[in-house]
Amino acid sequence: MQDKNNEQNPLKLLFIQHPYIRRVFAVALICALFIGLTLVLERFGVDRENLLMLFLIGVLLSTMLPPGYVYGAVSSVFFLFAFNFFFAAPRHSFAIDNQRDVLMLMFFLATAILGGSMSSRQRRQAEIARRNEKRTEELYKERAEIELAIEREKMKSLLLRSISHDIRTPLTGISGASGTILENYDALDDESIKALIQDIQMEAQELNVTVQNILDMTRISEGKLSLHKEFEAVDDLAAQASAKAPFLTRDNRLTVQLPERILTVEVDGRLFVQALFNLLDNAYKHSGKDAQITLRIFSEGEWLAFQVSDNGTGIDPAILNNLFEGFVTSPQGTSDKGRGVGLGLSICEAIVAAHGGSITAENIPGGGASFTIRIPYLEEAQNGI
User: Fold this and answer.
1) Are the C-beta atoms of residues 314 and 368 closer than 8 Å to each other?
2) pLDDT tens digit string along 68-100?
3) Count of other CB atoms within 10 angstroms of residue 349
4) Same structural domain for residues 296 and 359?
5) Are 22 and 116 contained in the same domain?
6) Which of 6-20, 229-243, 341-355 has the lowest mean pLDDT?
7) Which of 114, 167, 241, 254 could be joined to 276 by an S-S link, Cβ 3.0–4.6 Å?
8) Within a domain: residue 153?
9) Based on the number of CB atoms within 10 Å of its own CB, is 179 exposed (0-12), middle (13-18) or buried (19 or more)?
10) Is 93 inside any structural domain?
11) Structural domain tally of the chain?
12) Measured at the alpha carbon of residue 367, what is the angle toward residues 363 and 369, in degrees to the nearest 5?
């Protein structure tokens, strides 16, 4: 249908196929408008010098159309002949009787060409600047994408190496303990077998923690971390987190300090218990073999604080500022140096942030480290329970 309309309208087809014809038509239209305006002003007694300045404005307007210098010069000549024909004596003729008119028209032509050239040049420079700016933005975007891709590959490589290390370690322990039982079953007493089975259980729990952290981090990185909030008693949250850390409760290394009265907080129970457990697990791994760990829960005005502290070796100041980034696990460096993929603390930060809270870490002056989670807490909510 559109092709048929174009065939029926050759003038429209000509305008579409030849943009220069459109520009000539635009200049002619501007010229006609200024001729009409000038004729009206002349009737009101405006002299020719001022009318010539008005025509100069028309030239500058026409030069705002592309493509550039040559087009501006042609427009200037076009306006010159139009002014000569309508306003220079003798009128309606291209002849000039007065020498003063010749000088005035030459001045008009020079000014029009110069002004048009400057306008075209400025427009071209502005266009070049826009192109350069666009190209610069594209280069910055490409650079950012390349850097992001490189960082992703680096993180992927580090994650794979860390996962390999931290899955292999408990598997090696499980394999070694189970192999010892199978090979020396008749020679082992019940206590030895029980100790080996406990080692298998601990290594299996460590493996489960590693897998859970990897799954949680995958959901966080994909933006799929969704909360299912309910009011939970802080005593229950502490009990569930402690139950997941038998390696602490069995050796009496964990102390839990609860508020004097029962407090409730609106959280996603599973995720928040995981965050508390990650802090306990982190303290167990990095505070030292005989360090005592304390889980303390208390209110701070509009915040409810969950603090995990220890009297161990503390946090290396070199990693204190980026402690909640992935793969930072111990004062010795990355996850290859010790147990844990190094995702536990970064997962804690993501879970706490999703609850509208914050998490901080600091060294205790007397020795050890302290991690504190603060989440919003409404005293009014307790009064209704």
Assistant:
1) yes
2) 556 666 777 777 777 777 777 777 777 777 777
3) 19
4) yes
5) yes
6) 6-20
7) 241
8) no
9) exposed
10) yes
11) 3
12) 35
